[in-house]
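Open question from group meeting: does this chain pack into something compact, or does most of it stay loose? Before anyone orders reagents, we agreed to write out a predicted structure and look at it together. Recording both the input and the output here so the notebook holds the full record.
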Amino acid sequence: MKIGFAGLGVMGAPMAGHLQRAGQQVTGFNRSPDKASAWASAAGGQAAATVAEAAAGAELFILCVGNDHDVRGVVGQALPYLADGAVIVDHTTTSAVVAREMAALAETSGRRFLDAPVSGGQAGAERGQLSVMVGGDPAALATASAALEAYAKAIRHMGPSGSGQLTKMVNQIAIAGVVQGLAEAVHFAQQAGLDTDAVYEAVSQGAAQSWQMDNRWKTAAKGEFAFGFAVDWMRKDLGLVLDEARRNGSVLGLTALVDQFYAEVQAMGGSRWDTSSLAARLQAPSSSAARGAK
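Structure tokens returned:
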């Protein structure tokens, strides 16, 4: 399959690499040309200088970019150059509104659009073990799914256009609450003078167990956050969640509170820290959060 791929960042580059190694013909574009060239050299694909070049004749066009604005721009540039009947798969986390807009736009030109945000982070992308939540035409997904399996451990069709993005919002709501709970648990254990490694061994085999606990407890206890899914990205996602909640009438008190806690982490200089850095605002001796907890 001839595939165009736009967005060769920490997620997109390994995903596009899996496609190329699976025998697909991939042409990659990135706003920073050096990243596209580096990806092409490492993966054996082709680097494109423009979105139009990446999209030219593509039967499948995949994007993994930054936000709603980026998606509108890339899809608008790609559409005139895609093969007739091409499928566009958007792995960007966006609003459900833009997903529906792009689906309608693609349909007017005889193409199909799938909103397909992912969960699993950079590690999941590198291992080819992402979970993909898809909204849009099931027939379009049937066309694209064999290619997506190159980097996905699970692909789930969630409903009409926008449903993939709404499902990703559910994912981020659940993560926000769990990470805040983890941060407070680590903080409490430290304040109580407990051995945090021993605490992890004691509680991680029971009802408190979670992916976040298994993968972030020990680093959070050490105050190590320079890796993983950045706070800036999480705040962008939670902003989408809270906007959608205002539209559909959801009551998300905890999510809104955690979003403000992440704003405090940003103010501490942690914009690029992992989401587990909620623990940092409790560990900082001078922080209002730490003072309030004592």
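Observations to bring back to the group:
Residues 163-191 form the longest helix (29 residues).
The domain at 2-159 is CATH 3.40.50.720 (Rossmann fold).
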